Amino acid sequence: MSRRLANLGGMAALALVVGLAAAPGWAADENDYPTDARVDYVFGCMAANGQTRESLEKCSCSVDQLAAILPYDKYVQASTILSMRQGIGQRANEFKSTKIFDDKVADLRRAQAEAEIRCYRG
Predict the structure, then answer these.
(1) Would you indicate the residue range of the signal peptide (predicted)?
(2) Close Cβ partners of 107 (under 8 Å, ≥ 6 residues apart)
């Protein structure tokens, strides 16, 4: 029974995040980020910034701003490159030393910086 209640609590948090992402006035119509990608971003952001209501609001804002700036396919490409760079060996080195990959990651970093300015300092 307690496992069922724990699952309901998690589902309620997920529903809240999804509801915030789809709220009127947000960037949902301006991009193609799927809901699961938004939720994953918010959960990761909250893990890094505290599990508070304030961090939920700022992280939700951040992913919406990021999505308004950077198309989803470019976000996926940059995220994949960053993931591959964490490995070791020749394959990881190729991802670390190729200019086109640097440019894709730089685009993501610029979009994240702009989102941070808009959501955390604005």
Answers:
(1) 1-27
(2) 70, 74, 78
Residue type, 104: K
How far apart are alpha carbons 49 and 56 in whole angstroms?
9
Tell me the backbone φ, ψ of residue 26, rounded to 5 degrees: -90, 170
| Percent helix / strand / coil, the chain, rounded to 5 | 80, 0, 20
Is pLDDT above 50 for 40?
yes
Task: Please choose, from the candidates 40, 35, 110, 120, the residue with its C-alpha nearest in 3D space to the C-alpha of residue 78.
Answer: 110
**Which tokens is 32 given?**
């193609």
**What are the contacts of 17-22 at 24+ separation with CB within 8 A?**
17/42, 17/43, 17/56, 17/60, 20/56, 20/57, 20/60, 21/60, 21/63, 21/64
Q: Mean pLDDT in the chain?
A: 78
pTM over 0.70: no
* 72: pLDDT strictly greater than 50: yes
